[in-house]
Target: tRNA uridine(34) hydroxylase
Amino acid sequence: MENLDYNVLLYYCYSEIKDPETYREEHHLFCIENNILGRVIISSEGLNGTVSGLKEDCEKYMEYVKSDPRFAKTEFKIDQMDKHAFTKIHVRVKPEIVHSSLKHVNPNVRTGKHLEPEEFKALKDQEEVVILDVRSNYEHELGRFKNAITLDIDNFRDFPEKINELEHLKGKKVLTYCTGGIKCEKASAYLLEQGFEDVYQLHGGIIKYGMEAGGEDFEGKCYVFDNRVAVDVNKVNPKVISKCHCCGKISDRMVNCANPVCNIHVPICEECGWKYEGACSDECKEHPEKRPYDGTGYYQKNTNGYNPYKGLYRKPDKEKIKSIIHE
Model:
């Protein structure tokens, strides 16, 4: 039986941080000292992260985050793994904790009504209810709720540009959803701002829905932003909906194009994987920089020269760096 000694944590919290740079420094050091890897974004509006570590280290990390009064309300979605889901730790300060083009929106002031997974499940099929996916194309093409409305957007920051396409929904109950809930906080708030009156959001997103409500009627897999790439959600009535980028056959086998210049992440069936040697097209197959294909379509990033202490004021501990890099 697999030893699932590691956890993957997905979380966010909208809460004012008056000095993001100072907090970034403190947070970064805590991650290094407790062997936490992943990506954390900090801004004046809060924090957003996906990290991994041994279970006991993740417990310390969650306690550390929630012990700060500003982030006491943070909810963590916890998954199990047999290893780290990341190879590095990056803690960065950015203008927003999710790039949205909606910096003026404060979800702590007004946002859509939160629905717990079981509440969402009970409401989603009722009359005059529509389900709105606020994620990007590559995410909802891999998996989405049955009968959900999807938007043709490459990035969440394009969401406001699509609001006119949703005008006909103003008289309905609009249930928004995303991966972990963070995009819905601003998307639902923006819908309210634009005159939509009955707006809800799936609290904890697809991930929490899968954990607490069995994932019923979520078709396909959920795209995640770590080395797992895609995770199963539906334990009730699963269905594969994504198609091979090369031949169009039903497939949810996610592959990074072997051409590092292209590097798109798309479903490619096993047959086409070998036919194109891990590339997404004949052109990429012939590219002089194409990486060797081992049948997985996953390419470990080179950690040479990686220094987890980069950007910190404290002097690096060489042994600590070595242990983190070679975890």
